[in-house]
Amino acid sequence: MDEPAVVRIFDTTLRDGEQSPGATLNIDEKLEIARQLARLGVDVIEAGFPIASPGDFEAVRRVADEVGRGDDAPIIAGLARANQADIDRAWQAVKGARRPRIHTFLATSDIHLKYKLKISREECLARAAEMVAYARGLCEDVEFSPEDGGRSDPEFLYQVLEAAIKAGATTLNIPDTVGYTTPQEFGALIAGIREHVPGARDVILSAHCHNDLGLATANTLAAIANGARQVEVTVNGIGERAGNTSLEEVVMALYTRPTVYGLRTHIDTTQIARASRLVSAYTGIPVQPNKAIVGANAFAHEAGIHQDGVLKNPLTYEIMRPETIGITESKLVLGKHSGRHAFQTKLAELGYDLNPEDMNRVFERFKDLCDKKKVVSDPDIEAIINDEVYQPVELWRLEHVQVSCGTSMRPTATVTLRGPDGIVREDAAVGAGPVDSVYMAINRIVQAPNVLTEFSINAVTEGIDAVGEVTIRIEGTNGAHGRHYALNPQFGLRQRTYSGHGADTDIIVASAKAYMSALNKMLSARKEEVGG
Ligand code: KIV
Ligand code: ZN
What we know:
The protein is α/β, with parallel strands linked by helices. Helices cover 40% and strands 20% of the residues. The protein has helices at residues 27-40, 54-66, 84-94, 110-117, 121-138, 154-166, 183-196, 216-225, 247-256, 258-261, 272-283, 304-312, 340-350, 356-372, 378-388, 434-446, 483-486, 507-529, and strands at residues 5-6, 8-11, 44-48, 75-81, 100-107, 142-147, 171-176, 204-209, 230-233, 263-264, 334-335, 375-376, 397-406, 409-418, 424-430, 450-459, 468-476, 497-504. It is globular, with a radius of gyration of 24 Å.
């Protein structure tokens, strides 16, 4: 029997995904995620938008050089608007990869042509052809995307796509940029392109769907059913506004329903859970509990009838096994008497492979926690790892925090921080509550104006001794412009959001750590933005 045909997975977590508010990633975090994407087996990593900032350029260049070099390395793509400066910059960033790709885009819908680009259809057609040819002069692998393809006049879209093929595009990606289409419409659009655009059957057709109506996965599957053989996706479905099509949903739909699609991917599904955790930890965007495939409840059975059925035979209520996506049932219960070997075995079971330095720090934290809790659960360990390992570069370090508060006194905090220059500074402040007083004392030292836009606290496990995990978001207030918006002056200058997380059995300490994590992220991002 013939092998089923392959659908290529183009992952844009590091580009479209990073455009989610608050998802700002630094270069090391991008590299770590890119390594996991390579382990996952994606065919293409879109590593960023190199012209957006020196930091974006450097991240794409390093992903190309460090993850894109091996024999089996994925293609590394860099995004560029359809102009020479963007394309040159993208090429400089990706050219170190074994298989580089330039992904250039130009809007084709009348709305975008009239109000955003202020050009005619003729100018659009000419520019698309000229810039694809220019990119092709630099790189053999060129992808062209007609932005807002889902709302473009199909007849005009066909003309632009034909011109792009003639100019040398090797992949044509059709974006439903604003998540407007329905599965029937989007499937028909792909079928129409295959039928009406000369040469469309000789290039790869790709789908890039946004989730504004919650239809991104359905639209992507409809595109596949109509001949798309590349799909653009993100881990956990993060991305602009309501996000992009989620990688795990499309991959597991193809995997679970082979008789419907008869297609396969190159993805190692057992790496999905780990990729999901990593992306969530680094972006600070939690996965909703009922999220398909990777949500905490995706394999949880609550109703008695369901539990009874699953115990008799998992097939009664489970269409996928948790092991298939890399969730293994834990056999080891850890506590005070567990040694390093048991701890390492547990980490391997959970899918972590830490370097010796991180391992030492995490093990020390685990031992501390054992003094406070009898049984340390898997979520406790994951919270420690998130807190110790998945953190931004520590420009400012929290050395000490102390708070006095109660019914008859004003909450007062004293904090001690070590600065980037190695000098230890101490200050104190009175606030509206204990957390407020800590944040005010930190502000007095760090002097990085910002607004706290979100604060959430979550007990990792049940019980009074639970570890508390705090996630916060802050927005810079003195000129940290959102670069994706800054590229397009019509949106005005918008501030970027930075997330931070911290975990501790003491929630005030967890809150202080979360704030330091967000501040460090903001300050490092500013350094990267200016190429520092
Ligand atoms: O949504 C979109 O149109 C995009 C393009 C740049 C492919 O992200
Ligand atoms: Zn997009």
